[in-house]
Amino acid sequence: MSDDEPEAMRWSTENCTISRTMEILGDKWTFHVLRELFVGVRRFEDIRARAGIPRQVLTERLAGLIERGLIRRQPYRLPGQRERYEYRLTQAGLDLYPVLVAMVQWGDQYLPLDDGPPLEARHRGTCNEHVSVVLRCEAGHEPTPREVAFRPGPGAQPRALAG
Amino acid sequence: MSDDEPEAMRWSTENCTISRTMEILGDKWTFHVLRELFVGVRRFEDIRARAGIPRQVLTERLAGLIERGLIRRQPYRLPGQRERYEYRLTQAGLDLYPVLVAMVQWGDQYLPLDDGPPLEARHRGTCNEHVSVVLRCEAGHEPTPREVAFRPGPGAQPRALAG
DNA sequence: TTGGCTGAGTCTGTCAAGCGGACTTATCCT
DNA sequence: AGGATAAGTCCGCTTGACAGACTCAGCCAA
User: Fold this and answer.
1) Hey, are the CB atoms on A133 and B130 less than 8 Å from each other?
2) Pairing mode, strands B148-152 and B131-137
3) CA of B63, closest CA in chain A: separation in Å?
4) What residues does B148 pair with on adjacent strands?
5) Angle made by CA atoms A44, A104, A128, in degrees to the nearest 5
6) This prediction's pTM
7) Nearest CB to A17: which of B119, B152, B154?
8) Beta partners for A85?
9) SS3 of B85, please?
10) For residues B97 and B94, what is the distance between their CA atoms, to the nearest angstrom?
11) Fewer CB within 10 Å, N side or C side of chain A?
12) What pLDDT is recorded for position B161?
């Protein structure tokens, strides 16, 4: 192989963080479920109806998210009704906020609607300003996407098969 | 319906930015492809081999990403070989950096490996420091996930069906 | 000039997953 | 007792993923 092949070709994708994260997040229904939880919709029927998920798929996705620790199942009881369950984000789930905000930010830029964004992230409480994500390096710079590069880290494994 | 139902239930998900973004990004293979492009792997065979994607699926995903404007197909020619094509991120694709960085950041925190992260985002050039994403509001605060809320924006549509 | 190599696909059959719609269960209210 | 409702389970059809074989185009070596 010639020398101009990208450095990344020498590293395994086996343990890649993006892959492992996608094992959890990696399908559209999971993201739909997370969106509902992030906007405060927590009950099975409400999630199903709003997101348009087949019930069976919703059941399966909720179970997966619980198993991975992103959400928990919690009993609730409306006055005069029997106990039921709702789903809530754990800290691990909440910490996906930057991912969701980054996606909304990208979508608002590249798939804009005439009427403006249908969903906005805001700083709760008195501030109430619009929240976005920014890239920042440890030296305090805020690089543009072109100034950022993914590199193999300490946990990178060489690839088994020759390139 | 009782009054404690979340505000979000009154709004449609039809035009939701997350949904529309997930129409493009929303499956694991698409993310695998993007990862390869972000780390600099650009050729069909290289992407296929590293990401372990079935060829047909790769063909289909690349076509989709081109159609959506996230990548472009560009000819290249190695010395003594015929012209072939490689795939490169457009500006729209590059602007997904915050999404990918946010995912890596989450994965490194919640799915850590013994040896440390296999992939790191760094500020290119002389700086070379580690890059992360932060949430920031327009007043300059950097809220924690719990201090952020998604709210209906100007483009929010009321829901067609009653609650 | 023929034959082989390689990158970038296409084709084919199998099998798992998604899907809509009907059905179930448990508890509350009237 | 009868009806309502949230949260599922069950069923059959269809779509998509998948592995593996095949194709095609241009370059190289003999």
Assistant:
1) no
2) unpaired
3) 18
4) A123
5) 90
6) 0.95
7) B119
8) A75
9) strand
10) 6
11) N
12) 54
